[in-house]
Write the structure tokens for this entry.
Amino acid sequence: MAGISVLRGTTAYGRLPLFHYPQLPVSISVSASKQKYGPRKFSLFARYSQSQDVFTTRLQDSIENLPKLVEDIIQTSINTGPRGALRLAQGIQAVIGVGSEWLADASKTASSPSGLATELQLGLLSPVYLRKLFERMGATYIKLGQLIASAPTLFPPEYVQEFQYCFDRAPSVPFQEIQAILREELGKPIDSVFEYVDPTPLASASIAQVHGARIKGTREDVVIKVLKPGIEDILVADLNFVYVVVRILEFLSPELSRASLVAIVKDIRESMLEEVDFKKEAKNVESFKGYLEAMGLTRQATAPKIYPEYSTTRVLTMERLYGVPLTDLNSIKNLVPNPETSLITALNVWFGSFLACESFHADVHAGNLWLLRDGRIGFLDFGIVGRISPKTWGAMEIFLASLATEEYESMASSLIDMGATSQNVDSKAFARDLENIFSSIQDLDTEIIVAAAREPNTNATAVSANLRVDERQMNALFLDVVRVSESYGLRFPREFALLMKQLLYFDRYTRLLAPNLNMLRDQRITIASNQSSRNTYR
């Protein structure tokens, strides 16, 4: 029954079944003496022959592709090594645990007249239970869940919505383990490099955690980003396993190759491996700082200074910047007279980086975009960056201009240019659908949280306002655009979703700091153009 429900549920969600073979018509024996049935018998025989030919062709293709599949599996297994066996055991434990939850929940509804609830019919492949399985599997799968939640152009909406829960704070690693990694990576005693390292982490994510520290001698305040122990091995083993599973699925069901699952897994693998290589993150920061220096923007914005002598692939030591998130309205007003000017600076610097940098900052949520005490904009955490092709950026320019002027036919044309499709698209109908979606942006709920507290040692009352960014609401807008676009046969590149998400972050900051500002129409904001003359700072 479990197998049947999985296949039935997958079809209901609009995805291809795991196994697909042509439906062979049943052979019906008809007496040769009854001439009036001759044409029908010939027709049945012809249909059978055609189906048999299709089946034979697919079988031959499968036989030809089998050696390559076996070679991939063997090579991947060699690359994974003994760590694969350990992760397999941990995976079995996780499946048993979540499977028990599913059985308990299913038993409660199995006897009801309506049968199993919709969310239970897919078994462990349903959004809820798959998310729980990912959480039990640990850091790699939590990170994979975050990628699913951030990629509405690649995954079904039910999964994008459910995996938003993967953004919750990850548990921290004991400080003793962090100390052991620092000693190993630095190759010397910790107290010979740092005056102190705060044992309480400033932040803890799925793959790393951050501690405050001070450099010995210079007494410079820094933050140390440390890769959690064993993450590299877990990551390689998990992603290799996912790759093998997808390769087998494509072998068993060639139709799945149309969805480019192997290409998607390779892209995710590349992104995740980049994020755990802190030397690449350091390079991203240096590229951004080079852009600021070359454009004379160092008085307006900055990124943390990197200390390469105290950084490795697993440890990144950076200057500690002091400031407040762009959502802390009260503190911002104490730092600068005009918050709108600071927001415009942030927008111009970010847009300008498209032309000047090899990559752009693709995670400008409030924790990574600060107003510093000296009035500059601070860009933090370059672990997630995007790379945009000239074709995509050219279409994106037209899209943004169309969004600003509400010219939906032009917007539809730009999205058609950006998306991959093999069919003719009715641009006028597409434009009408887009108008229905984007006209609802102003209706999105914006909740401003105002908190009042008595300041210590004074009679003054501090009032702070924060904007609650609703990830679910933001992704709902993505999903509407993607859903409508897919109905016209369009598939967008991953960087489109990354760009849109950052623009929605800026839209929320605008509502809080500059309610009367239209960031796409205001003449003080320059959206980068002329992609062909791009200068890249590496």
About this structure: The first helix runs from residue 2 to 12. The chain has a mean pLDDT of 75.
